[in-house]
Amino acid sequence: MVANPTARTGKAAKTIDEAIAAFETRGLHPEFFPTLPEGKTVEALADRLEREDCARVVYLGGDGTFAESAKGIILARERAGVDVPLGMLPMGTANDQGRSFGIQAGANALANNIAIIAKGCEQWLDVGRIEAFDEHGELLASDLWFDNCGFGLSARILAQRNRDRQRVAKVPLVERFYRDKWVYAGAAFAELFKSMVAGSQFSSEVIVDGEVVEWVGLTDLIVNGTILYGGEWIFIEDSRPDDGLFEVVPFRSYADWVSAALRFHKRNPVTVDDREVVGIPNREFRRARSVQIRLFRPQQGQPISAQIDGEEFITAHHYRVENLFHHLRIIVPEDAHWV
């Protein structure tokens, strides 16, 4: 079980102990594996798995711990052919990965999520590999993602959220109340307002499985791998996490961005059929296994931010995104459905 005992100023330690006790009650034999600083968790976890005496990995924590655990599993398979599934005990408020498969987050969901892991029903997950290149075609960075990647406004909001989170952490009284989704909401409002005043639209040339598509006047461009985007929105209702394809979705204006946030929220009762009846067009998108993205900003325009799974990624002119088909096994409910 991979977890960070110092998370939430050490409060995670109690939950870790509760999870270990619950696993032992079910006749399982958990081994606690603490996360390491400076990105060292992935290789250390792969080293541990290569001893070939683990049946599964379970992460307890936020989306970052999910990513580190998943990358450790993948690295162990690539290096030594050892492959195990990943179980989920999400504690973060985002829980972007778990929500698409019917897994709730938090201490109150711990018992139910442990029961899901004990049953061991597995689901394949396609994984995204993103590479960033400079204007000369030199590779700048490469990484894996498990839910989505994006370019433009949503990535700037995440960058602003991270800066706000650091500032809030220095003021304990404020941190107690202004945290998690409140911080994100504040960053979203600030960035949307700044963008509408200053203007930060961009153009793109996107090659989707060999087809060249040009989109202009964009505020956002996302590549999504599961049915839920950011744990909250369903842009493409027949999206699947295991079909070898990603959905590429453009947003053409700030009004389009705000409208989509309302129309395609997962709790919106209006269906695709309802929208067709009243003449509201569905979301424009392309579906592909391989995506090449070139971004163009106006002169004097600000750099086009990038993100993967809610974390900042390097800003570049050219990106390549590949779908790694059936690249990770995850443990899910038998009747998995988004929540």
From TrEMBL:
Q: Give the protein's recorded name.
A: DAGKc domain-containing protein
Give the residues annotated as coiled coil: none
| Source species of the chain | Plesiocystis pacifica SIR-1
MF terms per GO, please? kinase activity
Q: Where in the numbering of this chain does the DAGKc domain appear?
A: 1-136
